[in-house]
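pinned: reference chain
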Amino acid sequence: MLPEAAQLTASQRQIQRQVLAFITAHRRDGKAAVFALEGDAGTGKSALLSAVFSAVQKQARSTGGALAGTTNRLLVNHNEMLKIYWEVASQAQWLRKADFQKPTPFINARRKADIVFIDEAQLLLSQPDPFNRFRQNNQLTEILKLAHVVVLVLDLHQVTKLKSLWTSAMIKHTLAGHVVERATMTGQLRMQSPAAAAWVDAFASGQLLPLPHPVNYQLRVFEDGVPLYDWIKQMDRQHGLARVLATADFPFRVYTKEPWYVQAGKLRLPWDRVNFTDRPWASQPQTLNEVGSIYTIQGFDLNYAGVILGPSVDYDAKTDRITIDPARFEDQTAFRRRPDGTDSAADRTAIIFDVINILLKRGRMGLGLYAVNQALRQRLLAL
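pinned: its structure tokens
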């Protein structure tokens, strides 16, 4: 979840002051000025963005001050993250639920704002998507037309679909001609063990390192899905917010009455269902009996995550590296062909590694792993 501004680290507070100074200096610019905040998963980007947006809205709804009377929005192209921000809004008197939107409705309304904040900007569409009523070339370009200042949070290692595929070159091209200031956040603030975070970084790039044994973090490998699930239930009883997650390697269909299941050895649990409530998926107690995906867990902090690595994630003994088979990845909507032809096997492999990176960095206090493929499972156990 997102902490209060008072809970920010000294480094976060310094960047907060930098962003607020940038906003004040450029709030009347005719062409949108851009502050880009970059960093890996778990480095506190969303917490900082939330704190800055809250400070801006407090000024906007007060009399006097440089930002009084400004109209500002925070956009995020992820349903569950939007719900987290709605919860934040319900706890602050100067925030409103309407302050937070998904990008497409904001763009299609064509109403200008003074300052637009974008969380998880790598999830913005980078191609037309008529199904979601977006027909222009990319969402970042359209948002730049509607604001004096754009503050965006960006992590190019958290891209999950080809239709939202961004590269450094694409970002540079889109921001050409705009005043741009950048800041990079480093240091893992979610995972309580730097050694465990480094192990996950290596794993999400295909490299296998010996498992560390930190005193303040549990990093465990399981021989079957059942003991993994038992461990998660135990951690949930003791600490709360422990959930089972999985890569999208198991069949599922959206909006069906019957559940679709994840099979992990002897464990068989249903996938997460479409969440029509305003509460984030992981904050609902019954979801302890489901398996979460990037669609329900991205942006949410768990205490413990039990991650099932599905059939697309395997191991090559000759190279001692993780291998990826995109053909076995069941989320085929992630791989819908792009009209510009940017959908190589390397792009698809990178997306699956990004999904792994997101899932493995959800737990603050612990991570449990079970690999469906025997070769990978045995190698993990050997580590």
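why pinned: The first strand starts at residue 33 and ends at 39. Confidence is low (pLDDT under 50) at residues 1-6.
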